Amino acid sequence: MRIAIYTLTRDRLEYTKHCFASLREKAGMPFDHYVIDNGSTDGTATWLQLNSEFFKKVVLLPENIGISEGSNRLLDEILKSEYDLIIKMDNDCEVVTENILVQLEAVFERLKMDNRQMVLSPRVEGINKQPRRAFYDHVNGYKIGVTGIVGGLFHIVPADIYARYRYPLDLPKAWGQDDDFCEWLRKQGIKKGYIEDLVVNHYETTVGQAQRFPEYFERKWEEEKNA
Description:
five-stranded mixed β-sheet, 8 helices, 37% helix, alpha/beta, single chain
């Protein structure tokens, strides 16, 4: 399978470095990484330019255009090529499981053979509360916890699904994207869930992040309030 991963960055360069390093170390197979920077002012843009050999495409923006528009721009670029899976990976994600892309490929190859579509994520640690699993499924030996919503820390989406969906531009810049996408999936009859045997971590948790970068969250919450 050909896999494209896309990430939106905005400041918090330490997290971006850690996230991308964990992905390269634990991927286990080749992938193309697309990045859009939403107007960082902390050196992130310079770092991305200096490390451009690791990325398929980097887009540097002078200001924050938000998650919806940033995601849509990268999806339009990614879908010009033939990928099987598109992964939305937040820059505060830490990959924990070794050879994670190899194992994801095994899950989605089985789903394809069974003519089934799902949008999945590894199990996410470092969050306040795990989503309730409605029931458990099994795919190629992997346990899948089916849920009503899957958070966007590490979304794994078959490319033909993203070919039919774009994030609404009337949403706040940094809120509501996961809810809208999951509601659209529900209407399409596409199940969502977590691969319980594979793990990613919400790095330092929201509480820890707010303690380390209070100014980032104050700005974020102010933008959401005024959206």
